[in-house]
Design the sequence.
């Protein structure tokens, strides 16, 4: 039972009576049933269930088989539930006159044994709304709130991810009406809804769907060519393709020998002065200054050199930043440096001897 913890059982030991009174909050919708439960095993033989308006029900314990005899007002019923060892008193068609306390008194001793604080609700809670700073950058903790008027009643908030109830885990922390998604990643993009529950029966409808949109990238920047392998031949064109993943989609810009605003460029390779650099820069349109990566290619009939220059804020997730092919031969070098909040990485790799066939 999801709501057992929210039933708010208070055990108040009153010194005067040297007796423990169980107090419980009960919620019921106007026109529906209010259900009062108590233990058959409590120390009682004859009890009255009563409120300001008088006695609602009188119950007598029978010595065998958890049986009871009962008399009560119209619309009130009592039965024993042997499987749970409890007695259930049902008040049908409740109205606001039931707001307040209902007590259970042992009639022979006059001692109170249990108190229910009855809350009659005029209607279901309004549909909640999910609020979050949307969208968010990958790598950050992301916090969402389920907002609803809960009539000031202590309630349970339930979150659903793609229709499935979310339980707290290292990834998802559900605390009160707050959901925190730790170190959000692109693949955590999802549809969420939330529900406000007061009891198992009294719960709001689903909130509207909230799409968790994770901004990320540029990731995995790379340059490829057609013909492949950066094979160049004087007088033959070569097309360079730059790719990277971003959300929202990356913008691409070429600088160096060719200036262009597209993802691919065509080079009419006909002289060694066209060897390079061909510098592709991918930027995330939401943060073109900090979320930017470049990749450089030099064309050469003898060899080609690539280098990746990665410049992002250190607060961003840098784990997915690629450094290209690892050093293979003389001339390959790697340099890392942290400058203030900037993470700046330069990788220069040269791969020798991609000889062109003449
Ligand atoms: C509430 O219900 C009781 C019993 O069903 C009835 O006597 C009373 O008139 C009702 N009060 C209101 C305000 O409707
Ligand atoms: C109901 O009982 C509580 C004790 O749990 C008491 O503080 C409160 O005043 C009572 N309310 C009414 C309306 O009698
Ligand atoms: C969940 O969040 C609450 C408050 O935001 C925090 O106190 C608690 O430590 C977090 N739990 C986990 C498992 O991270
Ligand atoms: C979210 O819901 C929309 C439509 O309601 C659907 O198109 C989209 O694929 C869903 N996204 C995810 C990540 O489930
Ligand atoms: C909740 O959903 C039910 C059934 O779909 C609908 O009849 C009711 O109007 C909804 N309640 C609200 C507050 O939107
Ligand atoms: C980057 O490439 C790796 C390896 O192919 C892949 O696992 C990862 O999902 C890619 N990252 C993104 C954001 O596309
Ligand atoms: C060499 O290529 C450039 C452009 O890249 C072009 O303008 C020029 O005509 C070409 N020269 C020859 C000899 O093909
Ligand atoms: C490549 O282009 C980007 C964007 O214009 C620039 O920041 C970077 O310094 C360039 N790299 C080189 C090695 O010129």
Sequence:
């Amino acid at each position: 039972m999801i709501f057992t913890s929210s039933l708010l059982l208070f055990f108040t030991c009153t010194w005067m009576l040297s007796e423990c009174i169980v107090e419980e909050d009960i919620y019921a919708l106007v026109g529906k049933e209010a259900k009062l439960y108590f233990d058959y095993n409590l120390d009682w033989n004859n009890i009255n269930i009563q409120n300001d308006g008088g006695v609602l029900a009188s119950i007598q314990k029978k010595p065998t088989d958890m049986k009871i005899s009962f008399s009560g007002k119209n619309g009130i019923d009592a039965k024993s539930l042997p499987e749970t060892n409890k007695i259930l008193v049902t008040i049908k068609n409740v109205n606001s006159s039931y707001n307040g306390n209902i007590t259970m008194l042992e009639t022979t001793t006059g001692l109170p044994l249990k108190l229910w604080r009855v809350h009659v609700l005029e209607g279901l809670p309004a549909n909640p709304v999910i609020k979050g700073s949307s969208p968010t950058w990958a790598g950050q903790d992301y916090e969402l709130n389920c907002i609803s008027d809960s009539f000031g009643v202590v309630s349970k908030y339930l979150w659903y991810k793609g229709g499935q109830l979310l339980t707290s885990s290292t990834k998802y922390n559900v605390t009160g009406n707050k959901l925190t998604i730790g170190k959000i990643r692109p693949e955590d993009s999802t549809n969420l809804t939330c529900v406000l529950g007061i009891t198992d029966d009294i719960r709001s409808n689903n909130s509207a769907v909230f799409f968790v949109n994770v901004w990320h990238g540029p990731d995995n920047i790379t340059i490829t060519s057609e013909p492949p392998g950066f094979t160049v031949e004087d007088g033959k064109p070569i097309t360079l393709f730059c790719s990277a993943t971003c959300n929202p989609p990356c913008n691409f810009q070429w600088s160096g020998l060719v200036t262009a605003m597209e993802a691919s460029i065509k080079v009419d390779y006909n002289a060694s002065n066209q060897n390079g650099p061909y510098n592709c820069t991918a930027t995330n349109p939401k943060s073109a200054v900090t979320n930017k990566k470049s990749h450089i290619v030099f064309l050469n009939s003898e060899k080609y050199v690539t280098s990746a220059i990665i410049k992002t804020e250190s607060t961003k997730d840098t784990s997915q930043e690629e450094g290209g092919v690892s050093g293979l031969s003389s001339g390959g070098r790697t340099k890392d440096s942290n400058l203030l909040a900037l993470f700046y990485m330069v990788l220069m790799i040269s791969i020798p001897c991609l000889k062109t066939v003449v």
Summary: Residues 101 and 117 are 5 Å apart (CA to CA). Confidence is low (pLDDT under 50) at residues 1-18, 310-358. The two ends are 77 Å apart (CA to CA). The longest strand covers residues 214-226.
